[in-house]
Amino acid sequence: MVFFKKILTCETYGQKSAEDSSSSLNHMLKKDANATAIMSTFFTEERVKELIQILISHHLCLTEVELKEWANEPEVYVNTEQEGDDWMIKRKASAEVLFLTLLRGAFSFLPSFLVSLLKHVVEADTSNDNAVLLKEATYHAISLGHYELYDNIDFASLYQNVFVKELQNPDPRYKILRRRITAMVGAWVGKVPKEQRQGLYHTLSHLIGDVDLVISLCASETLKSLIDDVHFYVDDFLPVLDICVARLFNLLKRCEETDTHLRVLQVISILIDQLAEKMKTHANMIFQSLSELWSTCSQQQDNLIKSSIVRTLTRLLHAVSVGDPDSKVLQDALLPVIQYSTNVNTPDFVYLAEDGMTLWLSVLLMAPMSSPQILGLFPQLTQILELSTEYVDVGMKILDTYILLGGTEFIKMYHSDVVKIFNNFLGQLKDQGTIILLKPVETILCMFPAEAPVLLEPFLIRLLSLIFNPQESELIQTYYLSLFARIALQNTSFFIQFFEKVDQTQQNTTTATTTFQKFLDIWIDRLDNMGLSRMRKLSGMAMASLLAPPPSLLHSPCSLLAVKAIPTILPAIISLIPDLDNTHISALSELSG
C-alpha cells in the first residue's frame, strides 16, 4: 500500500506541459511518458474499483484484535486510532492514506462508484456480523472522503432516513455503527442543516453518556465539531446544555489516560467559549470538577492535564460576567491555582508558568477591586521576571494592571520591586520588548504625577543616558522622550530640578544648562519621528508648559534656556496643528480671537 501511494503521488510520473519541454529534457520526458503510459495501463477503471473494494473490505474493517482492545482498553484504542504519524508501518493507517490518494487522483469515476457502494451496504442485510463490519468500513471510507464526496452525497437525507434508525438500534453488534455514524457527523458537519442540529444535539448528549467509553469519547469529539462550527447557534443548544455539561464532566471522571482527559477538556473549553455568559450557572460545578481533577493530577504529576485545566479556568473566568456575584467568588477561588502555577520553586513551574500568568492577568482584569490576597501574589512576578525575558510581555501587562488596580496601596508596598523590574530590563530588550516595558512606566507616571518621578529618578537618569546614546534606536528614543514629556507636563518643577540636579553631578560642565540644552535639541529634532499622534501632542503640550514654569523656578537656568529657545520651540508646537481635530482647532481660534 505504501508502494502504491508513492507511485501515485510521484511527480516524475505526472504529465509535463509543453512549456516545460526543451532539447535537454527530451530524454527525461520520454522516460516520464513511458512511466505515465504504464500507470495508465495498470490503473484501469476496473482495477482501481477492485482496489477500493479490497481496501474497504479487507483493510478498513475492524479486526478481532481491535474489537478486543475496544472492549478491554477503550482509551488505548481511541488514542491509538488518533495517531497518524506512523501510517507507513500501520496497516489500517496505510489503507486510509492509499484510499484518499486514489480518491484525490485522476479517477473521476470513483465518487459515483463510492456512492453506489454506500447505497449497497445501506440496503444490505446485516443479519451476520461480517455484513455489519463491512457497513462500518464503508461508512469509515465515506467519512474519510467527506471533502472529495461533498457534492455527491446528500448527507442530511442519509442521516435522517438511515442513520437515525441505526443509532437507535439496540443490537449490541450495532455499537460499532453507532460510533462510526457519530464520527461521520463530525466529518460531514458542514452539510448538517440547521433544522437537524437541535435533534442531533439531543442524540449526542445521550451518546456522551453511553456506557461504552469509545462511543462516549467519539460523541464528545463530534459535539466539539458542531459547536465549533460557523453555523452553531446558541439558542438551539440551550435545551441540552445542562445535560451535556453534566455528562461531559462525568466522562472526564471516567477517563484515566492523559490524552483522553485532554480531548474532553478541549471540548469543555470550546463549549465555554461558545456559550460564554450562558455558562454562569455551571461555573461552580465546573470549578469543583476541575479542582478534583487537579488534585488527581498532582498525585500523578501530570503536567499536561494541569496546564489544560489552567487554560479551561481562564476561559471559564471570561465567561463569568464582570460584576456578577459569582465572579468575585470564582476569582478568589482561582488565586491558589495562580499561586501554585507561577511559583518558581514548584517542579511544575516550567510547564504551568505561561498559562498561569495568563490566568493571573485575567483575574486582575476582572477583579472589581484589589485585595490583600491579590497584592500578596506580586512578589512571585518579580521572581519570574528575574529568571528570563521570556515572560516580559504578559509580565508587564500584569504589572500595569497591578498599578491600576492596587493604586497607592500597591506602590507603598512594592515601589522598590517595581523600580527594580524597570531597571533590570532597561537596555536589555529589543525594540518591541522595550515598548512593552515602558507601558507600565507611563501608567505609574500618569497615576502618581507627584510621587512617581521621585521614585523613578535612578531609572530616569538611565533613560536620559540612552537618549544621548547615538547607538540607541531612534524609534525607542521617541518613547523615552514621551515619558519625559509626560513628567514635564504633569510635574514641571521636578522636570526642571531633575535636569539641574543631573548637571550638578556632571564633571567638567561649563554651564548649568548643558544637559538640558542637549536634551531639548534632541527632543525637538525627534518630534517628527514620533509615529503616534498622542505622543506628538503630549510633547507639544509639555514644551508649552516649560514656557510657563512655576513662579519659584521662573529664573532657574533651565527655565531661562527654554525662554531663549522660543524661536525653536514655537515652530515645533505649531507644526502639530494638523494632529488636532476640528474641536481643538475651533477652541484655539476662539482663544486667538
Structural class: mainly alpha
The radius of gyration over CA amounts to 34 Å
Helix content: over 70%
What is the general shape? elongated
What is the averaged pLDDT score?
A: 89
Spatial gap, N to C terminus: 88 Å
* Total of helices: 32
Low-confidence stretches: 15-25
Largest sheet: none
Number of strands: 0
Binned strand content: under 5%
Provide the fold topology.
Elements: H1 2-9, H2 26-42, H3 45-59, H4 64-72, H5 74-82, H6 91-103, H7 110-123, H8 129-144, H9 155-168, H10 175-187, H11 194-208, H12 213-227, H13 234-237, H14 241-254, H15 258-275, H16 283-300, H17 303-319, H18 325-341, H19 349-366, H20 372-376, H21 378-387, H22 392-425, H23 431-447, H24 452-455, H25 457-467, H26 474-490, H27 492-505, H28 514-526, H29 533-546, H30 557-564, H31 566-574, H32 582-592
